[in-house]
Amino acid sequence: MNILILEDEQRNADRLIRLLQKIDPTFIISGPMTSVKDTIAYLQTQSSPDVILSDIRLSDGLSFDALKEAGSPIPVIFTTVYDEYAIRAFKYNSFDYLLKPVDKDELAQAICKVKQYALNTTEDNLHQLIEAMERSNYKYRERFLIPYRDGYKTVSVNDICYVFTENKIVRLFLRDGTSEAVSVSMDDLEKQLNPEHFFRANRQYIVRMESIKYLGNYFGGKLVLRLKGYPDVEIIISKDKAPLLKKWLDR
User: Fold this and answer.
1) Residue span of the structural domain in which 49 resides
2) pLDDT, tens digit, for every residue of 169-210?
3) Which of 28, 105, 178, 228 has a Cα-to-Cα distance from 214 of 20 to 30 A?
4) d(Cα 123, Cα 69) in Å, to the nearest integer?
């Protein structure tokens, strides 16, 4: 069986490859493809895989945009950090989904399902899936449940000014000047937060568009960014990311 992996986080891709090799050492594994652009190029120039293991968000957009370009219908197993309420649209014949971190037994079962029902896959299946996701507005995270005293409290995504990580601790910095630690990685947060409103500035920072107070030029083609309510925070944007940030803001 030929399997193509679409995943922009190397750690997750490596885990999928290890699990697949344990399930069946004869699997021929391609990828990971980390972007929509590279995936489209692969699908247009290489032989079609028997199944695609695909994250929803790639480095430059949604994987659906790449899957539309497949020359023939290919069974897809989606891997995602979202719970079932957000991905009920995947309930289509010959489609499946797995929640991260992917479990070996669940992955094996999904591949078995593909082997049994792949002949029923049609191009209409993918079109129906894409249309359903567009109608449901692809739900992004709206709040966080935070331990508080002897119970819990919620923090709305709308109250986040920026996200910062240091020493493997991720904190949400809020508009009221307080902060809360969360047990979610920056890579997963980047995918869970709506890219219309949040931008991954660098490895340590995710910023909210409405919180940006100042954007200026810096040395070597870099940019410097400052935030409302946090005058001591100065975020440096790399030369490579600078045009992406300016394009994100200039809409």
Assistant:
1) 2-135
2) 999 999 999 999 998 889 888 888 888 899 999 999 999 999
3) 178
4) 11
Give the pairing type, strands 51-55 and 205-208: unpaired
Same domain, 151 and 126: no
pLDDT per position as a tens digit, 135-173: 555 567 888 888 888 888 899 999 999 999 998 899 999
